[in-house]
Amino acid sequence: MGSVFMNKAPPSPPESASEATVEVYALQAGHFTLPERFFVHPASETARRTVPSLSFLIVHQDPVTSEKTRIVFDLGLRRDVKRYSEPIQKHVETRQPMETLPDVTKSLAAGGLSPDDIDYVMYSHVHWDHVGEPRDFAKSTFVIGNGAKALLHGAGSLRGSHSFFEADLLPSDRTLELPNPYEEVDEETKKPQSEGKGPDFFQEWKSHENLPRVLDLFHDGSLYIVDAPGHLPGHINILAKTGPMTTVYLAGDACHDRRIMRNERKIGEWLDDHGHICCIHADKKLAEQTIERIQKLESDGVEVIFAHDFEWEEDVKNQSRFFGQA
Ligand SMILES: [Zn+2]
Predict the structure, then answer these.
(1) Ligand 1 center to 307 CA (angstroms)
(2) Where is this region: Disordered (predicted)?
(3) Which of 28, 32, 115, 252 would bridge with 98, disulfide CB 3.0–4.6 Å?
């Protein structure tokens, strides 16, 4: 049975997708201070924590053309807070102490890059402490999760003084909104994007291990955009294969405190001035499900880094993980 095929060489495996990797570097992009009770429950009424707003540089190299694609994930704090909208400037007063330098451009410069070298700026979400100063990136294409555009243009009403958005934040001719993870992507949308080389933002969302909705950005398993619902509409994370045995998960604001990951605390809730229940996450239930998936990844050996990951930042062995510090 099947002997007629014996002389044939077995079909060579498809271009070994699992070997492709990307480089991931952390970038300092400011620090600010949050009341602990906004993160976790139970918490002290008065405890405050100064946290980083981390950005990341991700570099993918095409194995055939050697062409590099450089992506910055989040831009952190805006170095000149006077350039935030009025309501955010008011909000910022409640987040002191705050230090906006070094900002993401200074952190890129530490490794010899300028904003003009960055092909894509991708936002985990469009809260003020992640959007930075997009004007610096005059040549980059901006990538936002599905639903983020509507938020920027004033759709919906979210509680909390941090939820103010700027309609003119991004240049419309250089901004891509990812397809809806809960709908099929129509063929017309797919075609033009997948023809060329480089990242493919308009493909079907698929499951990958325990993650139900991801985009395999370069179709080589090196870099996935992960639908990470709960914190804010359009919230996305990154799963990056950085070596044969190493994978990094950039969790954005899916979680703010490692004690939640260790099940030592629950997600915090508080009452605003009007007596409304507030939560750092727009949808707490979905946020909990997202955290459960991240816990599973971590237990499988994936390194998880949050945007405001003060424990990760404080760990001396991570100093060399910042761009230009190796
Ligand atoms: Zn944040």
Answers:
(1) 7
(2) 182-201
(3) 32
Return d(Cα 27, Cα 35) in angstroms, integer.
24
Centroid of ligand 1 to alpha carbon of 20 (angstroms):
30
Three-state SS for 69-133 is EEEEECCECCCCHHHCCHHHHHHHHHHCCCECCCCHHHHHHCCCCCHHHCCEEECCCCCHHHHCC
Question: Pairing mode, if any, of strands 269-271 and 223-227?
Answer: unpaired
Query: Could you give the CA distance from residue 59 to residue 68 in angstroms, rounded to a whole number?
Result: 7
Percent of the chain past pLDDT 70, that is, above it, reads: 90
Rounded-to-integer distance, Cα 296 and Cα 325, Å: 31
Tokens of 180: 């809806």
Q: So what's the pLDDT on residue 45?
A: 85
Structure tokens that stand for 7 in this block: 């002389």
Domains and CATH numbers, the chain: 16-321 (3.60.15.10)
Cα-to-centroid distance, 308 and ligand 1 (Å): 7
Question: What is the distance in A from the centroid of ligand 1 to the CA of 247?
Answer: 23
Q: Could you tell me the distance, in angstroms and rounded to a whole number, from the CA of residue 127 to the centre of ligand 1?
A: 6
Give the CA radius of gyration of the chain.
Answer: 20
Tell how far the Cα of 75 is from the centroid of ligand 1, in angstroms.
11
Residue with tokens 């707003």: 53
**Residue 117 Cα, ligand 1 centroid: separation in angstroms?**
25
SS3 content of the chain, % helix, strand, coil (to 5): 25, 25, 50
Q: Which three-class secondary structure state does DSSP give residue 112? A: coil
Q: Is the pLDDT score of 9 beyond 50? A: no
Q: Specify burial of residue 295 (Cβ count, 10 A radius: 0-12, 13-18, 19+).
A: middle
Q: What is the pLDDT of residues 28-63, one digit of tens each?
A: 999 999 998 888 888 888 999 999 999 999 999 998
Is 265:322 a contact under the CB 8 Å cutoff?
no
Q: How far apart are the CA of 196 and the centre of ligand 1, in A? A: 34
Structure tokens at 2: 């099947």
